[in-house]
Write a structure and sequence with these properties.
TIM Barrel; globular; alpha/beta; 289 residues; 8-stranded parallel beta sheet
């Protein structure tokens, strides 16, 4: 009789893509941000996806954060399709590819989020539908700090029939939403059909309070944090020094698991070393159960 492998206690997402592109010499300047690589460095983008798969990630987010029509122009759908294809071809069969749906304006300026509900539904729905046609496995509406836009994006994504996760942010300094406000927005997104709610791009050292608040929403939850200020020594580090920061990140993520998180990854300032450390932590905890 063969021994069964312990079921992981959490799914592992990939880490920062924009950070990795910058670190590998690919410009992320301009409205397209990480989407520049779809046109200019598809081989580097594919290598990043492969590196995250090798590190242990099994859910990979295509570089569609800024491929909506208002950011990418007339060829937005071709860029969207190509981003999904690059991710799909780079990762092993059986891994899932998520389509990123981001705020229409600046993700850290919720005051700039459009308030026209019909416009929000139309533009988010346009990208969500294109991601569905491109063959993503799920939709990840991410980095929303404006609750009303997060809810509209959720509704547009859910309308495609695809599994929808929603990630809310309190910003790089953790000052845009309190844990209670973020959890209230997450609850509205869950009511709109999101099957999982997350906090993302909050400093890892300040993420636990948000995760604990999400535990009361009533659906699956998780976190993919940023590395915080460079002085914290968690991320934004050269590869030769990444190990120490990655270990610190995994230690923080272990507390998120203790709070009930079942989806873990990384955001800005994190890289494959961080995801590998998180994956090892998840495997160790799974084996111990």
């Amino acid at each position: 009789m063969h021994a069964s492998h312990p079921r992981p206690i959490a799914e592992v997402l990939d880490g920062g893509v924009g950070t990795e592109l910058w670190g590998r010499g690919v410009s992320t300047a301009g409205a397209l941000w990480s989407g520049n690589a779809i046109r200019n460095a598809p081989e580097v983008l594919a290598a990043i996806h492969r590196d995250y798969a090798s590190a242990g990630a099994t859910v990979h987010t295509a570089a569609t954060f800024r491929t909506k029509s208002r950011s990418a122009g007339e060829d937005w759908e071709d860029l969207t399709r190509r981003a999904v294809a690059i991710a799909r071809e780079a990762v092993p069969r059986g891994h899932r590819v998520a389509g990123s749906v981001a705020p229409l304006e600046d993700c850290y300026r919720p005051d700039r989020a459009p308030t026209d509900r019909a416009l929000l539904h139309r533009e988010h729905g346009e990208l969500a539908a294109a991601l569905g046609r491109a063959g993503v496995d799920l939709l990840l509406a991410e980095t929303f700090a404006a609750p009303h836009e997060a809810v509209a994006a959720t509704e547009a994504c859910v309308a495609t029939g695809l599994e929808t996760w929603v990630a809310l942010t309190a910003g790089p300094s953790g000052d845009l939403l309190t844990p209670a406000e973020l959890a209230a927005a997450a609850r509205r997104c869950a009511d709109a059909g999101a099957s999982a709610v997350l906090v993302n791009c909050v400093p890892a050292s300040r993420t636990l309070g948000y995760v604990e608040a999400l535990a009361r929403v009533g659906v699956r939850f998780g976190a993919y944090a940023n590395a915080g200020d460079q002085g914290e020594g968690i991320g934004w580090l050269p590869a030769s020094e990444a190990g120490r920061g990655a270990a610190r990140y995994a230690t923080l993520a272990r507390a998120w698991v203790a709070a009930g998180a079942t989806i873990l990854g990384g955001c800005c300032g994190t890289g494959p070393a961080h995801i590998e450390a998180v994956g090892r932590m998840v495997a160790d905890l799974s084996a111990a159960h």
